Automatic annotation (TrEMBL):
Species: Diacronema lutheri
Higher taxonomy: Eukaryota, Haptista, Haptophyta, Pavlovophyceae, Pavlovales
Transmembrane segments: none
Family: Belongs to the WD repeat PWP2 family.
Subcellular location, record wording: Nucleus, Nucleolus
A Pfam short name: Utp12
Protein name, entry field: Small-subunit processome Utp12 domain-containing protein
Amino acid sequence: MRAFRYALEELPPNKHAYRGGARDVRRFGAPARVGGAGRQPVLYALCDGQKVNLVARVFEPAPLREPACLDRWHDPYGPLDLATPAELGEALKEHKLKLVVINPGARAQVTYESGGQGIAPVSVTISQAARAHRAGHARARARLERRRHAPLGVPPAGCAGAGPTAASLEAALRAAHAGHTATEANARASGNVVFTRDGGTLFSPVGNRVSAFDLTSSRSYTFPFEARANIARLALSPDGGLLLTVDEGGYALLVNVPKRTVLHHLNFKGLVGDAKFSPDGKFLLVAVGRLVQVWATPEIERTFTPFNLHHTHSGHMDDITTVSWSADSAYFVTGSKDLTARVFTVHRRTGYVPPTLGGHRSALVCAWFDRSRQHLYTVTRDGAMLVWARYEQEAAAVAAVARGKRKLAADELLTTAGATDELAGDESALTMERWELHTKHLFERTHGSVSSVAHCSRAARALAAGAPSGADVAVGSELVAIGFSSGAFTLCEMPGFVQVHSLSISDEHVTTSAINGSGEWLAFGCAAHGQLIVWEWASETYVLKQQGHFASEVNALAFSAAGAVIATGGNDAKVKLWDASSGFCVVTFTEHAAPVTGLAFVPHGRAFVSSSLDGTARAFDLVRYRNFQTFATPTPAQLTCVAVDTSGEVVTAGSLDTLCVYVWSMQSAQLVEQLSGHAKPIAALAFGGGSGSLLASAAWDGTVRLWDFVATKARSDVLKHSTDVLAIAFSPDGQTLCASTLDGALTFWDVAMAEQVGMIDGRKDIAGGKRRAGQPSAQNDISGLSFRTLSFSADGELLLAAGNSKYACMYDVRNRSLLKRYQLSHNVSLDGVLDRLHSGRLTDGGDVDLIDDEDDETMRARRGKGDWALPGVKQGEHSNRTTRRAVRATSIQFAPDGTAWAAATTEGLAIYSLDEGLLFDPTALDVDVTPASIRAALHERDFVRALLMALRLNEADVLHWTFEAIPLDDIDLVARQVPQMHLARLLQHVAAEVGSSVHLAYVLRWAGALMREHSSHIQQNTGACLASLRALQKGVQAHYDGLRRLSSNNTHMLDFLCALGPSEL
């Protein structure tokens, strides 16, 4: 049988216990006979009511006094295999095995052994906690009596007989974990979102980074740090000063939110199911596997030992999925996959035994206290909400009842997995508490299983709204948001279980939910589609609705002429426009029916063109956001690239299968010309030359062809290369062309003379990153030794190049030298990030990460997210056991103002910008240039000297208040006397002030004065001032667009007010 083909394999002589999944078993060789081992093997298993999860097989098992000792045999990578109880009974008789069936709810275990007359239970082991758990109350005893004759099929300990058959064993296994559904196969959310205490900012993980969304000012930013792998959990301190990020491997980073810096690192050495700061901010609660750890909150100041472990609690039989604090930070509750919840205390209490809340039929998704800690709520994955009530009684009475209890039989204990906890504490405690099931509510089955839960108390909402801490508010009201696997969510108010609101927001799992402090905004995340939604349920409006190209890769990007808008196109056949300043998606175009392969903006910036594999190129209007032109080919063709000339009148696109370049008119959308000559698919197009009318086309045939549309005599020069040409780019002046080839070389051409003027060998620059299916070392892996995308800077001095590698390389064009290598990602969850793999994860069959050990549903979710081992494969090779997305850059481009550049990577759109506020230039700086001397010069009304000293000091704050201290009437005079050596720096400051200052007229007065007084110098030194001028244009354009939208939205109101007379106003 398949289940026991793995379990009966011979173990090494020095190994007493097997640990690992099916992927690790193969290193032990072929199956061997059991009888040859000399000892009778034992098989440990966990049951789920239908099947048995094989945990370990040992030849010398340790005595099982407590179920916690099974942790050493727990499989950290998933179940080894599954077998039905009937198959297990058959195998026990055939192989003469022992089987230990653990009942996590009752915290007891029964050992079955095969004999000559069938399968019989030989021993029952009950933990001391289970005995205390069952001792005490008469109501619990009555419940045991009612369950005494349950169809378990296990005779009391010490009874003789042949024992149960396979059918009775099957009934026993079903009773042990009744109701454990298959919804646990649904993957846990890849990350959670958290609100700040004021509810104005939302933190969300994006791969191995964290993004913050300011919902009040409609802006977003990304923290500059990177986690080691994809972030699985976020926790925010109550004051919002500390942010804890935990990745999939259990590595944690503690971040100072105001400074955006990493303070401390910590490795929890296990999968973290949940993490929460206490309400008073003194402790940090972390669920690591089956354990829950209480840490003292680290200080913001750097210390030698920032993390101090306060206490570790155990007791659960499976991984913990949720933790929550009480309002007074004295208690916390944990929920686990073993279908139980437990209540612990932060500080040890004499005689306190953590109560266990059973009776759940599926894994717990969330558990929390109400603000008064009189009720406790648990929500399970199968759609049930259980409300528990707390009762207190004298400890002396509890102890007396416990002393008078007789020892319960083993079969009675095994039948009470969901009974109520009774805590047998010592007599020194004043009172003891117990929890009993109060009510049970069920959600609609049509929504599917519960995937996420968020809650907020009414008292917390009142405090967030500004009510004093001692105000009289109803503490029993709870607002609960439940996300389902169907993509819908429900908002309920407890304890009455009143459904307030319901909405369907997606067709995939709602993987995370959150409620802000005021209870007005609900945040939901859908990992499958990359959706992030903030919903105001009272007014039924979206506060934030964002979705990226998460399920597919971004193929192309382009900056607008002013740099204020970024366009991206992906394999999902969508084109998205992003606001470069706020980071939000403005609009999404869905007209294409196949992956988008190229993007190009029209020079005036009011339109852009996209190409797609559906055989069309489309022009989109940025004013009305519509597709106003569609360019089609005469015969079906797949378009791979697109380019627009400098006049915006000519649109060109290259083909993958017809090997032609199509030329259309922008005005009429008519095909003007069809250029042929290439022998292989066309890879890139670009316009350049002195007049901007020279078209360069690059193809896999190793040639770059130049086509001149304006020249009287048709021109078609051919620039030959040694291998396939993958990408091309023109310098800003149009005189130099750079081509990237398959051998990793960058070749520079003088387009006027059609001569090669230089070359850079970039194979060593781009090399790096080990692929798990490739060579053992990154030095021997040649899969990424070529550049697939190129971009020149605005002044033509720099060249960016990237490709199938984790690096983006920046070169000095004049000296043909490498300036810097940027690593696009440090996320080890992606393939190609590590330079050398861990030898401990390599087996005879290859890397263990490439061995399939996941269920079908998880594999279907993971497939289709990138595997490029075979030519042409874009969405994953289904013949492989697993697919892992590899880090690479498909498109890269400098911003027009030269202060930023963007890359379309595997993780999405990454934007890198200059942080010029930290620069310090000591040129012409002496001891007299101080903030005090600048203030003295301003006091003496010597504005020119004060401004020059501020420019020489080059501190942003000093320059800001010096700049604004100059009177409006003196701007023209001061601008006339600014030296040319400081003009570029002053223009840069003016451009920055346009975007941030509230004195817009004052700043524009400065810009106009500098343009008039220094126009000739700016024209002669365009390269030095170009970045500042474009930044200035970008800021002015943003203000213009805002005013235009404001006026257009209020046109009728303005007409109405103008029509009114003075008396009517």
